[in-house]
């Protein structure tokens, strides 16, 4: 063991800060290879009767979705010794795809965004595997979760700046942005490799996280499948809403008719990240797994309420566009972040399930991106084209109502299961 790892093992505060920075940095950098193309508008271009940007978004999400389906097996059966090399390799493949996206002319370059998304979908599971199964997993994972929020607005601002101020084309801007982040990727991945293994106390409270066989996955779904299905569908709705907002934020803002500068994307996402992090931070303080699950469920449910309530207020002209986009985003991530770093982690710890969180998270993600693609294709194939802003309002309201119903059903299911299961000794009695 290196001196740095020994120091991190002995100093809890340093370990927390190290994990927060390394996870945040690595996942933020991943988005520098995935999201910048969204900052382009690709005006006047189309393919198969669809707006070309929509084609690009769908194509990349298809690759990302395929990666999530593959990840159900790959991440759940992960050999932890290969994690760092896999992260770097996947990101370099994505950057190479962006190079050909800029080199090959429209309309033949869209396929490279599929190749770009294909390896990136597994980066979350690889990074989270360094953090899961610890007493402070939720706290350590806050950086991983918030990076997804902050990166969205930040990278859109960087992308628009490269296009409008530097003069780089929409097609070469994604590759240029990614190239700027390669040195940072290498540094933050090295930081991840320095994180020591979970301690004996971690294993005692959270259970050891192991690779899962196909039989393990089948057994888990047979025993708890109905409740897991409810949570997966609820997360799918959040993914659809989150992705539509993220992918078409520029177009939604433009359709409001309100003037805005390039910094608006960063400002709204920074506020969302701050509010979401603070709210999830309270969950980290709860050691009792049953109480933690109940508070996590409450946070997700409130997220669905905020999502729908803010949209209704905006429709009635009760709040401004910027306030709506900010509050709605808070609602989305009040639901999404607990799913990613708290809910499944606590379920594994409370019920003492064998395996790892990556399996359920990738099951949820793959279904979520499938739903996201279906909604985008459905919008484009409708006889009467709906603009992005009204479509997003409808998606938000449907997500809110259906999500609340699914959470009530899944919560009731697991509450009943907790009465008959052998709980963790750290559960509430």
Provide an overview of this structure:
With 429 residues, the chain is an all-alpha fold. It has one domain: Up-down Bundle (Growth Hormone, Chain: A). 76% of the residues lie in helices and 1% in strands. The chain has 17 helices and two strands. The chain has helices spanning 3-10, 12-34, 52-74, 83-103, 111-120, 123-128, 137-140, 142-166, 173-193, 200-206, 214-247, 249-256, 264-284, 289-315, 321-351, 357-381, 388-420; strands at residues 46-47, 50-51. It has a two-stranded antiparallel sheet. Helix 2 packs parallel to helix 8 (142-166) and helix 14 (289-315) runs antiparallel to helix 17 (388-420). The chain is globular.
Order of helices and strands: HHEEHHHHHHHHHHHHHHH
On the 0 to 100 scale, the average pLDDT is: 85
Using only CA atoms, what is the Rg? Answer: 21 Å
Work out the strand percent: under 5%
Profile the largest sheet: 2 strands, antiparallel
Total separate domains: 1
Low-pLDDT segments: 423-429
Summing up helix and strand content along with how strands pair, one would put the structural category as mainly alpha
- At CATH level 3, the topology is Growth Hormone, Chain: A
CATH class equals: Mainly Alpha
Helix run count? 17
| Overall number of strands | 2
User: Helix amount, in percent?
Assistant: over 70%
What characteristic shape results from the CA principal axes? globular
Give the termini separation: 40 Å
Order of neighbouring strands in the sheet with most strands: 1-2
CATH architecture tag: Up-down Bundle
**In the CATH hierarchy, what is the superfamily?**
MFS general substrate transporter like domains
């Amino acid at each position: 063991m290196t001196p740095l790892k020994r120091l991190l093992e002995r100093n809890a505060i340093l370990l927390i800060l190290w994990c927060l920075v390394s996870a945040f940095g690595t996942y933020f950098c991943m988005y520098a290879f995935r999201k910048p193309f969204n900052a382009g508008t690709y005006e006047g271009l189309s393919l198969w009767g669809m707006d070309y940007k929509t084609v690009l978004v769908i194509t990349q999400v298809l690759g990302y979705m395929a990666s999530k389906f593959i990840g159900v097996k790959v991440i759940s059966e992960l050999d932890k010794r290969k994690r760092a090399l896999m992260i770097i390799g996947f990101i370099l493949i994505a950057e190479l795809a962006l190079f050909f996206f800029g080199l090959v002319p429209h309309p033949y370059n869209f396929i490279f965004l599929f190749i770009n998304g294909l390896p990136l979908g597994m980066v979350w599971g690889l990074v989270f595997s360094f953090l899961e199964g610890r007493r402070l997993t939720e706290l350590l994972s806050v950086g991983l979760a918030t990076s997804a929020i902050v990166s969205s607005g930040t990278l859109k601002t960087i992308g628009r700046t490269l296009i409008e101020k530097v003069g780089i084309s929409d097609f070469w801007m994604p590759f240029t942005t990614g190239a700027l982040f390669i040195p940072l990727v290498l540094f933050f991945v090295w930081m991840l490799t320095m994180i020591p293994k979970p301690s004996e106390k971690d294993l005692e409270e959270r259970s050891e996280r192991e690779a899962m066989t196909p039989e393990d996955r089948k057994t888990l779904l047979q025993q708890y499948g109905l409740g897991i299905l409810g949570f997966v569908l609820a997360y799918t709705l959040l993914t659809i809403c989150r992705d539509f907002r993220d992918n078409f934020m520029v177009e939604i803002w433009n359709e409001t008719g309100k003037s805005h500068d390039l910094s608006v994307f960063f400002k709204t996402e920074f506020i969302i990240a701050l509010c979401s992090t603070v709210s999830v931070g309270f969950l980290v303080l709860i050691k009792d797994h049953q109480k933690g699950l109940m508070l996590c469920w409450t946070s997700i449910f409130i997220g669905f309420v905020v999502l729908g309530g803010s949209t209704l207020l905006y429709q009635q002209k009760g709040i401004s566009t910027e306030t709506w986009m900010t509050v709605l985003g808070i609602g989305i991530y009040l639901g999404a972040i607990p799913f990613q770093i708290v809910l499944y982690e606590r379920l594994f710890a409370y019920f003492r399930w064998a395996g790892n969180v990556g399996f359920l998270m990738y099951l949820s993600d793959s279904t979520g991106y499938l739903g996201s693609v279906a909604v985008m294709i459905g919008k484009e194939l409708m006889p009467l084209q709906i603009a992005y802003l009204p479509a997003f309002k409808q998606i938000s309201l449907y997500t809110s109502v259906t999500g609340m119903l699914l959470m009530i059903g899944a919560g009731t299911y697991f509450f009943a299961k907790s009465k008959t299961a052998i709980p963790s000794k750290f559960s509430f009695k």
